[in-house]
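hey so i finally got around to running both of the ones u sent me last week. sorry it took forever, my laptop kept dying halfway thru and i had to restart like 3 times lol. anyway pasting them below in the order u listed, first the sequence line then the structure token line for each. didnt double check formatting much so if smth looks off just lmk and ill redo it

first one:
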Amino acid sequence: MAAVLDSVRAFFAPHVFTIDSEKPSVVVARENLLDRAMGPHRRKKSSEKIRRGRIPAEGLALVARDRDGHVIGTVRLWNIEAGVNTEGTPINALLLGPLAVDSSFEGKGVGSALMRAALLEAKNRGHGAILLVGDAPYYERFGFFADKARHLVMPGPFERARFLALELTEGWLDGAAGMIVPSGRKLHSLPARKAA
């Protein structure tokens, strides 16, 4: 992971921002950023149903920080099963999202840097495909298209034209059909304390 992030830092103006693995200390800053960027209804989206109660895929929760160390961007990827193949075997993949950048840093390459770092790290970790729900004109430049996701569905309402996929391994999603379901590690809550 360090080598990937070092190459991204070198390419994307390290004097403006850096990209690093998400640490527990940034949870509040990340959630505040997502609330500002995604609005009050972000937790009602179909993608959120898949993420709820889960932990991001190993090594695939990234943040961008400004020169002062403030969180200005975030991206996370989640383990999913992308339906089944023609033999009925579940297809392991990732769901990307949300990707968010602080409005004061829009247009400075933060979102692109986060995407490139996340895609490279996912490929280096052996993942075969990534799906997302987002604006096609933005994500097509990274190789995401609706065609590979045409026989897959989200658990709840979603816009078909915004449901996109990228194969990190050619042919990974061939024949993929069915419902997207979570498959990643579950978030374990702390046990309730008993009254004395």
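and the second one:
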Amino acid sequence: MDKHCFMVEKPCPVCMKTTRVIKTRSRLVVEKTDEDFCVHYKEFNPYYYKIWVCEHCGFAADEKTFLTKLPERTRKTIWDFLAQKKLDIEFTEERTLPDAIASFQLAISYLDLIHAPLSKKASMHLQLAWIYRESGDKELEEEYMHKAADFYDQSLSSERYPIGPLTDTAAMYVVGAIYYRLGDYEKCAQHLSRIIGDQAVRTREPQIFDKARDLWADVREEKKKTDAAAKKS
């Protein structure tokens, strides 16, 4: 087992059986953080282990969801679904890239099944995009970034924030950062302008305000390069 991980046993919230899961240690060395909050760590990628998967029934979710008692109606919906599928999940101490991708795709399928909050779907799709980013699969990274941005946009207009540690301003910034990485500077600017145009945010959430202002400056520089290239052609 990797030195950054350790195994624990936890009860599955769906089948109730005790399953082995892998936790990552908190002392990881950060190398850099991308605009959309994707953190790159030295020698290890904890996102591979973000999703816990029950080795008995195949239920998959992030740690917080896994450790929370599910409403009986939700549990029954998932249990009935699993009874038809009979998933054969092999427990592995060290996950490969395909293992990590499969765990996220499985977790996303359950979110769809129970009509989970849009913000939850957005976060899950964005984290899967980060895994594709590390693997160098730009096409799938961008596909999941687009989905994450769409879910966050829908969430901002229909869900009440804050959701966990995420405020509506922070969610708006994330969407802007996603579009920046996608090269859609117009949509990026639309989201960032709503942040830096609100002076109340400067007082209430100075860190997000500063990040939005800095990214806005980067957008302006990219636009200048694009305009200059267009004139030359």
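quick thing i noticed on the 2nd:
The CA atoms of residues 131 and 137 lie 9 Å apart.
anyway thats it, ttyl
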